[in-house]
Structure formats: structure tokens, C-alpha cells
Design goal:
Layout: H1 25-52, H2 59-65, E1 74-75, E2 78-79, H3 83-96, H4 98-118, H5 121-132, E3 138-141, E4 157-161, E5 164-175, E6 182-188, E7 194-200, E8 206-210, E9 222-233, H6 244-279, E10 281-282, E11 285-286, H7 291-319, H8 325-349, H9 361-371, H10 378-390
Parallel strand pairs: 3-6
Antiparallel strand pairs: 1-2, 4-5, 5-9, 6-7, 8-9, 10-11
Helix pairs in contact: 1-3, 3-4, 3-6, 4-5, 4-6, 6-7, 6-8, 6-9, 7-8, 8-9, 8-10
């Protein structure tokens, strides 16, 4: 017996505090459009790709048809949607599959976001419209093998030589880089400032190797990247990226989207477990009729509701330009913890069947282990919040 997939119009009451009533018609339409895409196009095929560590390239044209790439960016053929709508897109995408959501987040949030926030008008005009149509795919190269949590100490160097920069270094865990048309690579310049460069596909000296053997997010390709004397024209340096503070502007915005992603994983697992519990019989009745299971389901729903309310308010603060880095970190820290537990509880309710991919939860639970770490670990998020509330940095 497989659990049913919730219909696009059937939420199984996961919107327990009726946040739908607060959405605009546009936000509701965007959510339903992405939910239908996840139900009809993603969920039926993704287990096979996830299991084989293959990326579902066939979904890119269908994803492009949704017209959501660029999310909140205004102009340049981007949709210019609200922060709430962007969050709902992330949640529904992750509800379908975390790997596809990561692909989309890297392209739309990190790569397009870097160009939108730090690029010149010419750079925006050159790249954003084609990336919004997903004719060009983006990647984001910040993390290095020796520098994850302390990525501010990155070692990749960009030396000015006449009308070019020569970039040398290595990056790790770079989503989409193995096939992207443009990768935003962050490096130290001659003044030791961290700045961004637009590395175009097939530039000599830029090479990638896909990483394999991951326990989660198996259907998204992340790569080790080598930059060996890559020559980049001056116009490919991000015009408004001067220090790591500029890099952080991009990271804070995408960190908020990761908090929304956690909701998607949690809802998918909760809905699968609830459906299963009502259909699975033990000792002569559905397991949903046992007190321990109802207690677990009630607590799972409470955590989901907590995550939804936090993200909804955070999106309002983003719209008002009041969101701080600590606020985004608190949301990611809180939601990653809670979603991981919700997924684990769902797997427990489903017993032995919960470890099988065909019952959906195992994939979301494994993916949440990755979400718990990327875009800043739980520990780092807590230190960002701690610095903001005490005024004292405790990173070293």
C-alpha cells in the first residue's frame, strides 16, 4: 500500500491557522501553480532520479514554463513576486523534491540574486532576462574545501592583469556548476577584498567534477570546481561587489528561502504519514486511532504551524526592508531543526515502510540532513543570532 499524494486542492489541513485567508489572489495562484507542477511532473518521476544520483534535465523546460525564475526581482523579464509568494514557491517546490528546489534556489536565488544585487545595469540586462526564461542556467561558487563555515577566509585569488582578471583556486559543493552557463565565483582581489566574477561556460581553465555518494539531495548535481588561470574580462567583475558584506546580502535573502524550504519537506512528510496512519491497520484498527500516533501527529502539525507563522512574518519584514541577518538565521535554525524532527517522526509512524523511497518520507528525511547543514550550519546560525542579541561575536 502506498500513501496517496495530496491533491492540489487538498492540503490535509496543514494550513491549520488559515494563513491562506491572508494571501493575495496572485500569491494563491502562484502557490497552486507550483503545487500542481510538483504533483503532476515532479513526484511521479523523482525517486528514480534521486536513487540513481541523476539530475532530471527533462524538468527544466517545464519549470521554465511556470515563469517563476527570478522570483522577487523586478524587471528584466522577472516576475517581481512578493516575498510571501517566493516563500510559497520554495515550500511547494521542496514539497515535491528538495533536489529540484536546490537547483532552482541556486539558479534563481543565488546566481540571479547576485547579479540583481551586485551587478551593473549592463550585467543585469545581459544575463537576467535569459536566466528568467531559464535559457541560461546559473551557479554560485563560494564554498571551498577548507572554508565552509569560515568562508569569509576563502583562498581563491583574482589578480588584475591589464584588461583581465586571472583567477586561481578551488570551490566545493557548487550546485549546477557542471552544466551552468554562468557561475558567480567569489574571490579575493589584489586589495584582498572579496568580490564576485561571472565565469562563463567553457572559459579556459574552468573545470568541474560532479560529487557523488551523498545521503541526500541526490538528484541535484554539486561539483568540485577548479580555476586554473581563468582569464576573465573586466566587465565580468560584479560591479557592486566590494566586500564580503555584499556577498552576505545575497546569502541573507536565500537563507530566508531555506526556512521556507523546510516547511515543504515537513508538510510532505506529515501528509504522507497522516494518510498512511489512517489506512494502515494494526491490532484490528487504523494506527491513526492509537493515542501515541495522534499525539505524534498533533505535535508534528504544531511544529509545521510554528514554521509557517515564523516565515510569514519574516516575509512581511523583508517586504518592509526590516529583516536583519539574525532574523533570517533564526528562521533557518528553527525551521531546519523542526522539519528534520517532523520528517523523522513521519518515518517512525510508517514503521519499516518509512525507509522505502516509494513511501516518500525517506527522501525528505535524507534531504533534511543536507538542509540542516547548507546555507549555514545550525551552530553558525545560532552564533549569528547570538552576535545580534549580545553585540559580541563568538565565532572564534
Amino acid at each position: 500500500m502506498q500513501p496517496l499524494i495530496a491533491d492540489v486542492t487538498q492540503s490535509l489541513r496543514t494550513d491549520y491557522y488559515l494563513l491562506d485567508d491572508l494571501l493575495t489572489d496572485e500569491e494563491r495562484e502562484l502557490r497552486d501553480r507550483v503545487r500542481a507542477f510538483a504533483n503532476q511532473e515532479v513526484i511521479p518521476i523523482i525517486n528514480e532520479y534521486w536513487n540513481k544520483e541523476e539530475f532530471p534535465f527533462e524538468l527544466i523546460p517545464k519549470l521554465a514554463e511556470l515563469g517563476i525564475a527570478g522570483t522577487t526581482i523586478k524587471g528584466y523579464s522577472c516576475p517581481g513576486m512578493s516575498q510571501v509568494a517566493a516563500g510559497l514557491v520554495a515550500a511547494e517546490m521542496a514539497r515535491g523534491d528538495g533536489s529540484l528546489n536546490t537547483f532552482f534556489g541556486v539558479h534563481s536565488g543565488l546566481a540571479m540574486g547576485s547579479i540583481a544585487i551586485c551587478g551593473s545595469e549592463e550585467q543585469k540586462e545581459k544575463w537576467l532576462p535569459s536566466m528568467a526564461r531559464m535559457e541560461k542556467i546559473g551557479a554560485f561558487g563560494l564554498t571551498e574545501a577548507k572554508h565552509g563555515s569560515d568562508v569569509v577566509r576563502l583562498e581563491t585569488r583574482a589578480r588584475r592583469q591589464g584588461d583581465e582578471y586571472v583567477i586561481d583556486g578551488e570551490k566545493r559543493w557548487i550546485g549546477n556548476a557542471s552544466f551552468a552557463d554562468v557561475t558567480v565565483v567569489w574571490a579575493r582581489d589584489d586589495e584582498d577584498n572579496i568580490t564576485g566574477f561571472l565565469i562563463e561556460k567553457d572559459m579556459e581553465g574552468f573545470s568541474t567534477k560532479i560529487m557523488t555518494g551523498k545521503m541526500g539531495k541526490r538528484a541535484v548535481w554539486q561539483a568540485d570546481v577548479k580555476l586554473e588561470g581563468v582569464r576573465v574580462p573586466l566587465e565580468n567583475r560584479l560591479a557592486n561587489a566590494y566586500t564580503f558584506k555584499d556577498t552576505s546580502k545575497v546569502l541573507v535573502a536565500t537563507r530566508a528561502m531555506v526556512a521556507w524550504e523546510c516547511i515543504g519537506h515537513a508538510i510532505a512528510s506529515y501528509e504522507a504519514a497522516l494518510t498512511y496512519a489512517k489506512e494502515r491497520e494494526q491490532f484490528g484498527k487504523p494506527v491513526a486511532g492509537f493515542q501515541l500516533i495522534q499525539n505524534k501527529l498533533a505535535n508534528m502539525l504544531a511544529e509545521i504551524t510554528n514554521m509557517q507563522l515564523l516565515c510569514f512574518r519574516l516575509a512581511q519584514l523583508q517586504e518592509e526592508a526590516k529583516m536583519t541577518g539574525g532574523m533570517a538565521s533564526l528562521a533557518k535554525m528553527n525551521n531546519a531543526r523542526k522539519a528534520k524532527q517532523v520528517c523523522a517522526d513521519a518515518r517512525d509512524i510508517m514503521g519499516g515502510n518509512g525507509v522505502l523511497l516509494e513511501y516518500y518520507v525517506a527522501r525528505h528525511l535524507s534531504d533534511m540532513e543536507i538542509v540542516y547543514t547548507y546555507e549555514g550550519t545550525d551552530t553558525i546560525q545560532s552564533l549569528i543570532v547570538g552576535r545580534e542579541i549580545t553585540g559580541i561575536g563568538a565565532f572564534v
